[in-house]
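ok trying again, last paste got cut off:
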Amino acid sequence: MEVIVIVGILIFIGSCVAFLHHYRMRSIALSRSDSDICRYARSFDYRNVDTKIMREVYNHVQEWAGKYEGIPFPVEADDCFDEIYKMDADDLEYMYADIAQKLGISTESPEANPYWNKVTTVKNLVLFLHNQPKVKDSRVA
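nice, full thing came through this time. structure:
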């Protein structure tokens, strides 16, 4: 009987945390009504940064963040993965690997990248991927 009560309490706490996270993200999304991919793109030196990487990171983060009021979450370049999205390191690593594979970017020797251990924002992820070498003879999807 005690186990059932403990499990019930844990489920209740988990539900409360999920509700609060959803409400917080919804509030952020609704406050960014003027934010779109054009504003996001202007946050970069798009003449020197690969726009395919910019777009793919935007799409992945937006998909991960979800929809609020039927509208995809408005991603901004300065969004911090930990503070805004509450994204853990594993999710960020999977996102990085997915984007790298799709765009034919090498995941080898990331410690040589000037953005190594500095990926805290959406913009830093774009710049990290931009500074990784391309895979030779890659078959980009």
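cool. The CA atoms of residues 41 and 77 lie 8 Å apart. DSSP finds five helices and two strands in the chain.
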